[in-house]
Design brief:
By secondary structure, the protein is of the alpha/beta class. The chain has one domain (about 5-150, about 170-200, about 245-255): Rossmann fold (3-Layer(aba) Sandwich), CATH 3.40.50. The protein is about 35% helix and about 20% strand. The chain has ten helices and nine strands. It has helices at about 5-15, 20-30, 40-45, 60-65, 80-85, 125-135, 165-170, 180-185, 205-215, 220-240, and strands at about 50-55, 70-75, 90-95, 110-115, 135-145, 190-195, 200, 240-245, 245-255. A seven-stranded mixed sheet has the order 3-2-1-4-5-9-6. A two-stranded antiparallel sheet has the order 7-8. Strand 2 (about 70-75), helix 5 and strand 3 form a beta-alpha-beta unit. GO terms for molecular function: methyltransferase activity.
Length: about 260
């Protein structure tokens, strides 16, 4: 998959038939320095009353961490992800496109989109759809990353001869912490932004290598050796491979019109 692929094409190649890539990425975040995990932090801030819909729910890790909820619906475009989502107790699981949700207008109390808008070719169409299915006064929660999120990993691109590594790590369509609040405000009111404070401190090369492989596929022996050497040199110099994170939660309300 080249850097020129569309957002949806990359998502299909990454997620349609496997949950392994997402699992590898979640694993790297276990090295965060914030004592409160992302899922616990997010769970405290989500609108979880009554009918809750998570779009692009992936492996359902959020609900395994914070516990299932009554009247919870989980959707994803990927058959592999939907199979995993069916392991969430009590959840209704639907396979569908985020821009064409199979719900009547005004029938959902809360919509959650956790780190998924950047997988879409038309994220604004999804935001319009979220607004359509929400009841007046319903709440939206969107998590996105900043343009500088995990930028330290981009430096490994030249090491392994992958000049588009930064493209793969950065989000297309400018679905970022910097640009997305304004996009949300075009469809919702009471928009707020809160940053999750965290940094990864990774003591070994393997989790970082697994993350890179999850993004670009298997490395050759030479590529892996070069990447490992670069990572271990950083660890030797600094005691760990440090990766800065920039993730925000954007919350908003569906207006009365």
């Amino acid at each position: 998959m080249t850097g020129d692929a569309t957002a949806s094409a990359r998502a299909t190649s990454q997620y349609a038939t496997t949950t392994g890539n997402l699992t590898a990425r979640i694993a790297l975040h276990a090295y965060g320095t914030n004592p409160q995990s992302w899922f616990a932090w997010l769970g405290e801030r989500l609108p979880l009353a009554r009918d809750v819909l998570e779009v692009g729910a992936g492996t359902g890790e959020l609900w395994h961490r914070i516990g299932p909820r009554r009247r919870l619906t989980l959707t994803d475009f990927s058959p592999a992800m939907c199979a995993r989502l069916r392991e969430v107790p009590g959840a209704r699981v639907l396979r569908c496109d985020a821009t064409y949700l199979p719900f009547r207008a005004g029938t959902v109390d809360a919509v959650i989109a956790n780190s998924m808008l950047y997988h879409l070719d038309d994220p604004d169409a999804a935001l319009r759809e979220f607004a359509r299915v929400l009841r007046p006064g319903g709440r939206l929660a969107v998590a996105v990353n900043g343009r500088d999120h995990m930028a330290e990993l981009n430096t490994l691109g030249p090491v392994i001869g992958c000049p588009d590594l930064a493209v793969r790590f950065h989000h297309r369509n400018d679905v970022t912490a910097e640009a997305t609040p304004a996009r949300v405000a075009a469809h919702f009111t009471d928009v707020t932004v809160e940053r999750y404070p965290d940094e990864l401190v990774v003591p070994a090369a393997e989790p970082i290598l697994a993350y890179i492989v999850s993004m670009i596929g298997p490395l050759t022996v030479a590529e892996e050796s070069a990447a490992r050497a670069a990572i271990e040199a950083r660890i030797d110099a600094e005691g760990a491979f440090r990766v800065r994170k920039h993730t925000v939660l954007i919350s908003a309300t569906r207006g009365s019109r």
